[in-house]
Amino acid sequence: MKRIGLLGCGSIGTQIAIAIDTGIIPAKLTHIFDEDKEKSVSLASKLKNKPEIVENVHLLSSNPVDLVVEAASQDAVSDNALSILQNRKDLVIMSSGALLDESVFEIISDACKELKKTVYLPSGAISGIDAIKSVKNELDSVVLTTTKHPNSLKGAKFFDDFKINLDEINEPSTIFEGTASEAVRLFPKNINVSALLSISGLGSHETIVKIIADPNTTKNTHEITARGKFGQITTKIENVPDSDNPRTSRLAILSAIETIRSICTSDIKIGT
Amino acid sequence: MKRIGLLGCGSIGTQIAIAIDTGIIPAKLTHIFDEDKEKSVSLASKLKNKPEIVENVHLLSSNPVDLVVEAASQDAVSDNALSILQNRKDLVIMSSGALLDESVFEIISDACKELKKTVYLPSGAISGIDAIKSVKNELDSVVLTTTKHPNSLKGAKFFDDFKINLDEINEPSTIFEGTASEAVRLFPKNINVSALLSISGLGSHETIVKIIADPNTTKNTHEITARGKFGQITTKIENVPDSDNPRTSRLAILSAIETIRSICTSDIKIGT
């Protein structure tokens, strides 16, 4: 049974830990760490099988774990991914936005090849990454259209320069259209979806992102259209926000759990 | 570098072999087999790095290969999957329809667990299996709508009992709606798509399949709608038929190549 070290004990980390503790993921959670020790203590208190709370992130991967799961932050990835791989651990990355930095991507990819370790990026809150990565070399265009309630967009850096009053929007309105690279800079809450789609397809400078504010929706909707010699792929996911953490889609958590379950199981693996 | 044995040297097997031979898949094709030896000889003649042509299917997995790739038939899966796993080889299955037989599925799944080997099922000609398998336990309904030119449906068993003249269809017409289990029996050419979707989600008795004959289309279109507590997933793929084998969608071949490439690489693995 694989031993897992968890980096990040917030809402997502907690749900992953509970999936391990309840046997949905057939593994053993042996070590956990969070910058905020109270979060680690709080998480441990919720689990039947108590993991060891370690004092720093390096102790996660220097201990005899098989897999480290990051559910912390982009900085946690940039700062620690290489050292985790050098400690000969596989790694699941939830904060896939970190890999939009090409130098970070290259360092991690090279380390995987050299050290024969694997980094896993769950599909997150979108669907169809299985098909898009398969046709990567034949793609002509990839467009992501994200639709959210105006309240979910509040506070984005975009509004520092563009004086749109979100409270006055009374019908679905396109408020941004540009590259994934720009979208990530201006709408940090959309980072992981844009990042994962960019990495699996045309990269962040060729992937187009549209953001629509819709005062009538309660869901976070991501629609992807990809075209090329193979034909056309359209996928749309209307995500119900997670009840514990409305900023996260339920699918993002479920896809992380499925990714880790699959890593920890010898069985029939479905899908590309 | 992983050593691959190929079971089936038809159109799909040939394209996989060429992907290995040209380095798209970083592996070594060491042994090949086909019931029709001429196909093996013809395939070998197209490759720079000549594999050994073996005389029976058992020699594929008794030789020192790491992975067997099946691109032959459902019977080839039912007859040989267990023995391949018992020979301690991982296995990629293209003819996923074989796994709709619950006893076959169970034997293969149990063998994977017991022998610590893995069977891989590429997503094939559909998209979004990454999301659907993630929400498997929260699904209320899954519907697959396949749209094809009437000519692509000719010869299906369905028409033995239902006297529809496909040549007289002059607008998009729903000609079948039922369970995936029934669809597979009546429309054998749709087997792998219906099978893979069933296995990843609600099973073949709960997955609904609609088949539409559209005289105006040149593509094979598969649309999936899945609903549940998580929200709703819709994916649509308009597949251009493969130029070498019009009965196969280009995506089906590309997703097989991507699956095998990923198995043979230590790198960043994108998607659930």
TrEMBL record, chains A, B:
Keywords: NAD, NADP, Oxidoreductase, Pyridine nucleotide biosynthesis. Its EC number is 1.4.1.21. It catalyses: L-aspartate + NADP(+) + H2O = oxaloacetate + NH4(+) + NADPH + H(+); L-aspartate + NAD(+) + H2O = oxaloacetate + NH4(+) + NADH + H(+). NAD(+) binds at A125, N192. Pfam families: Asp_DH_C, NAD_binding_3. GO terms for biological process: NAD+ biosynthetic process. Pathway: Cofactor biosynthesis; NAD(+) biosynthesis; iminoaspartate from L-aspartate (dehydrogenase route): step 1/1. Residues 8-122 form the Aspartate/homoserine dehydrogenase NAD-binding domain. Residues 170-257 form the Aspartate dehydrogenase domain. InterPro entries: Asp/hSer_DH_NAD-bd, Asp_DH, Asp_DH_arc, Asp_DH_prok, L-Asp_DH, NAD(P)-bd_dom_sf. Transmembrane segments: none annotated. GO terms for molecular function: aspartate dehydrogenase [NAD(P)+] activity; NAD binding; NADP binding; oxidoreductase activity, acting on the CH-NH2 group of donors, NAD or NADP as acceptor. The active site is at H222. It is an enzyme of class 1 (oxidoreductase). Specifically catalyzes the NAD or NADP-dependent dehydrogenation of L-aspartate to iminoaspartate. The iminoaspartate product is unstable in aqueous solution and can decompose to oxaloacetate and ammonia. Belongs to the L-aspartate dehydrogenase family. This is L-aspartate dehydrogenase. It comes from Candidatus Nitrosopelagicus brevis. The lineage of its organism: Archaea, Nitrososphaerota. The gene is nadX.
